[in-house]
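Justification of resources, computational component.

The compute hours requested in this renewal are based largely on the per-chain cost of generating structure records like the one below. Each record pairs the submitted sequence with a full structure-token output. That output is archived, and it is also reused by downstream analysis tasks.
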Amino acid sequence: MDIQTLANEIPVQGEYALEGIDFISTGEQYLTFSLGQEQYAVNILSVEEIRSWEQPTHIPNAPKFVKGVINMRGIIVPIIDLRLKFGIGDAKYSKTTVVVVLTAQHMTKSRTMGFVVDAVSDVLNAEQDDIKAAPAFGGNLAQHYIEGIVNVDENVVTLLNVNALQVIAKQKANS
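The structure output for this chain reads:
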């Protein structure tokens, strides 16, 4: 019996189904999300959880893109609005707005931060050959935040460097 046949026999409750899921992937997997009209992605192994938008506790004198902090099971998690940090229009919070909580290892420490995004899209399987270097053409997004770009159908998805995102809060706001 193959894995897909086995998955189809598992009882499903609610909206969740295992049909059509690729269980084996030879490439890297990325969680894709949107900011305005642009698509971005982060390595899925760094994703701790995806939370619905809730107003965090405000931090006095923080840059505009630092929305505050939340308590996530005893861990204080800073919340950064990527739309504001990257200068992609005004932050508009809707039913699809979520916080992607990422944990990254840096040397011997791990850091957990939440990033407000407009909506989570999909999981992207990207082979190393599909990932291209991002062109250095200036713009709102500094080059060190970009791991690469991937063409997906008619769209371009920008792969973000999770370790670079984790030091975002230490930098001053652009505005």
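The chain has three helices and ten strands. The two ends are 58 Å apart (CA to CA).
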